[in-house]
Amino acid sequence: MFALPSHVTDLARIEAALKESVQTPDPYLSEIASHLIIAGGKRLRPILTVVAAQVGGAADAELHERSVQGGISCELVQTGSLYHDDVMDEADTRRGVETVNARWGNLQAILAGDFLLSRASEIAASLGTEVAGLLARTIGRLCEGQIEELRHTYNAARPEASYLSSISGKTASLYATAARIGGLVAGFDRPIIDALNEYGEAFGMVFQIVDDLLDITATDEQLGKPAGHDIVEGVYTLPVLRTLQAGGVAAAELNALLGKPLDMAEREKALGIVRGNGGITASMTVAREWAARAEAACKLLPQSAATDVLFVAPSALLASF
């Protein structure tokens, strides 16, 4: 999704530092804590932090290390939240491997998720009180977004504003924080830091809308987890909501299916309705609007190779769908 010049970031360094961050004297805890990290991932949050730190020009070794650590703190929050999400969802697979709860049990998954959050907080504290406070507030926003989603589970009348508020908290807030940390560790002026924050929020909205579209349209193999999981679990995302808003026979048929858990046949019918009746196209329009906001934020940043990377990243996300 990102096309990264080698002089802008170092994915190998990010990957090595991430794995190192969850090693403990206890091999059992280390294995559980590193399970999803070893399974892979796009590492978009730490990449975003490292790139954001370079919008004023290339980073020296010290700044590069601080931005890597800042990005890792965000990635650990994300991974810890996935451990908790999989317990709540009773999920069996994630990133093409067994979930921690499926392999070791719910108690271990919850505690390992808590451990990852604590490591994230420890790393953030090493970067200063402002970064530590920012990450703490972001963890709170993740919880708020999750609660907003839960309160509308199986609600076919879920307002679109609820969906947007939820993904802003659950997803976009952490991208905003990743970008802001890059600006903070680089010591940029406040207008640049704020523009990076705006960029990260908008980019995160694009990311989640595209992710929700893929949950509707992709296969189990492509996703590394069951397709259509959200609609089965009563989480009605933007393409579902836009299909319902359109009205007509398709909306009535979809509405009749929703409001309860779906079996395999009902899932396929519901997915077919959403795929074939405008919900996908309408959701892509919203994603493009957020991509335009991210691009507008880039115009407030200094001209640099890193800024160029940030500018093209939202379009690359859209193209991945």
TrEMBL record:
GO terms for biological process: isoprenoid biosynthetic process. The keyword Magnesium applies. Keywords: Magnesium, Metal-binding, Transferase. CDD domains: Trans_IPPS_HT (cd00685). One of its GO terms (molecular function) is metal ion binding. InterPro entries: Isoprenoid_synthase_dom_sf, Polyprenyl_synt, Polyprenyl_synt_CS. Pfam families: polyprenyl_synt. Its cofactor is Mg(2+). PANTHER family: ALL TRANS-POLYPRENYL-DIPHOSPHATE SYNTHASE PDSS1 (PTHR12001:SF69), GERANYLGERANYL PYROPHOSPHATE SYNTHASE (PTHR12001). Belongs to the FPP/GGPP synthase family. This is Unannotated protein. The lineage of its organism: unclassified sequences, metagenomes, ecological metagenomes.
